[in-house]
Design a protein that fits this description.
The protein folds into two domains: 145 residues, 2-Layer Sandwich (Cholesterol Oxidase, domain 2), CATH 3.30.410; 64 residues. It is elongated, with a radius of gyration of 22 Å. The chain has 209 residues and is α+β, with helices and mostly antiparallel strands. A hairpin with a 2-residue loop joins strand 3 and strand 4. Helices cover 26% and strands 20% of the residues. The longest helix is centred in the C-terminal third of the chain and has 25 residues. Strands 1, 2, 3, 4, 7 and 8 form a six-stranded antiparallel beta sheet that branches. It has a two-stranded antiparallel ribbon with strand order 5-6. Bound molecules: flavin-adenine dinucleotide. The site of flavin-adenine dinucleotide has 8 residues, from helix 3.
Amino acid sequence: MADNPRNEINLLVPVRLDDVGVRVAGITESGPFDSTFKLKCGVIGGKISRPISTGSVNLISSDVTVSPKVRFNYYSHTEDIRQCGNLVEVLRKVLKSEAMEEYKFSGILGPNFFSYIGPSLPEDSSNEESIATLCRVTLLTFWHMHGRCLVNKVVDSRLKVIGVDSIRVVDPSTFFNSPGTNPQATVMMLGRYIGEKILNDRSVNAIRH
Ligand SMILES: Cc1cc2nc3c(=O)[nH]c(=O)nc-3n(C[C@H](O)[C@H](O)[C@H](O)COP(=O)(O)OP(=O)(O)OC[C@H]3O[C@@H](n4cnc5c(N)ncnc54)[C@H](O)[C@@H]3O)c2cc1C
């Protein structure tokens, strides 16, 4: 299984803001990012698309009320760290943009400055070690877990559990990748698509009999 790491930096801002959700969202060549401002705290971050690091889900009991053992293994692959480095550069550009000037505090003796809650971006963009550290310490989830029941491994192309006739898995666990920024629309379309296939199969079978 896999999950998309999310990395964010948090800013204390000098202006009072409406309590709002995501203000700006986008998909860059290096992956999606978004920014949220809540009262006096701003959050800017992004999701690492198509992570290569994979984790595992293991049942530890035949009792369905016992939670499985889940291990995410975020950033265990260097390619994911490299992608996070790209995200750091996108965030650096956002912070340098004119639109962000109003969120700086005025420097009495020097230039205006951002006030961070928690880590800030490393000064030196070529310092791979400090970027990797930032990626690991600011790591969160976007709750886009996927890939536990992949097609041709656990389910067939009609999402039927291989070897079992009457169980299908129709959810993000069949995804090789979590699409775009958010998976829910795709999950809903998948449900409709498979539902229509089931209805079609039933009407074909009804005609045959
Ligand atoms: C905090 C959070 C924020 C998210 N934000 C977004 C977002 O903004 N946009 C987006 O696209 N995606 C978002 N996601 C991801 C999205 O919610 C999931 O990808 C999607 O809901 C997965 O759909 P699902 O049908 O597989 O699972 P779920 O939506 O979790 O549905 C599973 C259902 O099964 C029920 N259930 C579980 N066990 C049993 C049982 N034993 N018997 C009967 N019923 C049971 C649960 O109560 C639940 O209703 C978010 C996820 C989280 C956790």
